[in-house]
Amino acid sequence: MIRYLKHEQIDKKRWDTCITTSAEDKVYALSWFLDVVSPGWQAIVEEENGMYITAMPLPGFHKMGFPYLGQPFHTHQLGIYTTAQSSADIRVQFLELTVKHYKFINGYRFNLSDTEALQALEGAYELTTRYTRYLDLNKPYPDLYRAYTRDRKMNLKRAQRAGLSMFESDDIEPLIQHFKTHIEHKVVGGVSEHTYQLLRDLFQVMKQKGVAQLIYTTAGDKVNAGCLFFKYNGIISYAFNSADSTGRVTNGRTMVLDEIIRQHAGKDFVLDFESPMIDQIDHFYASFGARQVKYLALRRNALPLYVRLIRNVRMKIYRAFFSSGVAEEV
């Protein structure tokens, strides 16, 4: 039986059992992660013999009286999590139920395991192609290093010659304050304090679960770059970062990423760069030898005409006002 569930109807023990026994099993879909990034999240589940055998998290909310579905901050991929017992056409049924419940869907991202099945539905739904970068770490470090581009090797040597210090930390605040000072003004539309608080809360939970790794680089006693990683089920997610002008010139983030690769080389890990679709940033991640992988995102706008007109006007004003904004690697 397939059901749409409001938040209070979700059995989180059964939910997490379904996620962890699915082939996908990503940290973003676990109940404790969703509780932080999207309090009140809903779901679609397929039930059999009292168990959830398929699950789709829905971080939905109401705006102007209409149900919206989006992608929470710091949440790379969600989608449909299936177990061996799932129905053959389950993704079709879940997609139908999703668009039935949400009038507006803003780039809801599916996981990589959904890609092949959903490609056949691109004509029926507004599914857009997105990409990230994966680096398989199951080779010795020298082999991984050889796959770096010539420029990346040179920049790593520059970082080493710059005399940067590198250390791990359990304190997220320097990274947040660093981002506020050096990056926030370049982000189109700015960054709300709510987004920073969400990152603080998420880091605390991830730290308690033992799946967060935070690394800073310094020149002297001043932080010039910081990188946050989430590690779960063989995936290392490059979740958040910041660098000032010194950190960029001395290649602090290159040094940290190389250290992560070095630490996990020869092990059954994949580094997910969570690459945004910005050519300059994608080129940077590709320079580590990372391969491009495809996933899909769902969009929909079935709002009444008057709401769409109001939204279009607001978006035109927004784009005109922030047209000089600069995208930044985060």
UniProtKB/TrEMBL annotation:
Residues 154-265 form the BioF2-like acetyltransferase domain. One of its GO terms (molecular function) is acyltransferase activity. Gene3D superfamilies: 3.40.630.30. The keyword Acyltransferase applies. It comes from the Bacteria. Its EC number is 2.3.1.-. Pfam families: Acetyltransf_6 (PF13480). Keywords: Acyltransferase, Transferase. Signal peptide: none annotated. This is GNAT family N-acetyltransferase. It comes from Pontibacter rugosus.
